[in-house]
Write a structure and sequence with these properties.
single chain; alpha/beta; five-stranded parallel β-sheet; 7 strands; elongated
């Protein structure tokens, strides 16, 4: 009894008087999967397979099920299902592919069928297709090709897919693309910063991008300070609302800034740009009002 009590203490908690839940979601998922398999209630799993919170339950159910049950479950994930969106249908097929590795024993024909249904889904050929794949969610990350094994053109599409997944799990995959010299890949990685934890993304992605001819967008003071910690960057795109004082204080070193791109208005007078002695170019988004007082030697490019 003492051992059971200790185990229960480790697995359960009481968030409010009279309410008990599990400390570890994984254990809760395991119990749900085991109960489902014991009841042969695979229809319940298939009815919820398009929901990300059911992914681990379904994986565990595949691991616990007998070969014929695995086959039925995987074939069910591949089968058309009325009432779900296209992205949800793709999610179900990719989940089937992710589950194959969890099956203790599986009919080779079922394994082949899963691969046939999913082999082209994780290699998008267009930007629209790459974004649509990313919208399926983090499960996609497990099946994308190794970044080191693809061309620059495919690396860009994979970057589009991974940066469409607004989950910090994507950072691990994106780290495999951070050394690419392709301008498109580098710009895609730099532009996705705001979707992830600022400090981690700065440390694991931004710090490794070749800054040559690359504009680094900053949307808030946290990102600006993170770039400051990295020693600054020569090309900056101001993609958020700042005060002039915040920019003068945050863009360090001041003599490291070469090009500045303003996507948000900071008033019409640009006399404050004199604080950056090496600044050569000011880009102004077309929707902003005309500027005045630009220091001599700085060319203005209206986009």
């Amino acid at each position: 009894m003492g051992e059971t009590t200790t185990t229960s203490w480790l697995l359960l908690r009481e968030p409010a008087p009279g309410t008990v839940d599990f400390v570890h979601r994984t254990f809760q998922d395991f119990l749900a999967a085991r109960a489902t398999v014991q009841r042969h209630d695979f229809g319940l799993l298939l009815n919820h397979a398009h929901l990300s919170e059911w992914e681990d339950v379904i994986r565990m159910a595949v691991a616990l099920a007998r070969p014929d049950e695995c086959a039925a479950l995987l074939n069910g994930l591949l089968a058309p299902r009325p009432g779900i969106r296209a992205a949800e249908a793709r999610h179900r097929k990719l989940l089937a592919a992710a589950c194959v590795g969890h099956a203790a024993e599986l009919d080779p024909e079922v394994r082949h069928r899963v691969r046939r249904f999913t082999r082209d889904m994780v290699r998008p050929s267009t930007v629209a297709g790459a974004r649509a794949l990313g919208w399926i969610g983090p499960i996609v990350l497990e099946m994308l090709p190794e970044p080191a094994e693809v061309s620059d053109g495919e690396a860009y599409l994979l970057a589009v897919t991974a940066t469409s997944i607004a989950d910090d799990m994507a950072i691990d995959y994106l780290a495999g693309l951070r050394k690419r010299t392709s301008p498109d890949v580098r710009a895609q990685l730099a532009g996705a910063w705001r979707r992830y934890d600022t400090a981690r993304y700065a440390r694991e992605i931004i710090a490794h991008l070749d800054p040559d001819e690359l504009f680094f967008p900053v949307a808030d003071t946290e990102e600006l300070h993170a770039l400051r910690e990295l020693g600054g960057r020569p090309y900056l795109q101001i993609a958020g609302e700042f005060t002039v004082a915040e920019l003068i204080d945050g863009i360090v070193p001041a003599d490291g800034l070469v090009r500045l791109w303003l996507a948000y208005g900071l008033g019409t007078s640009m006399a404050w740009l004199a604080a950056f002695p090496r600044l050569e170019e000011l880009r102004i988004s077309g929707r902003l009002p005309p500027v005045t007082g630009v220091p001599e030697g700085i060319r203005v490019v209206e986009l």
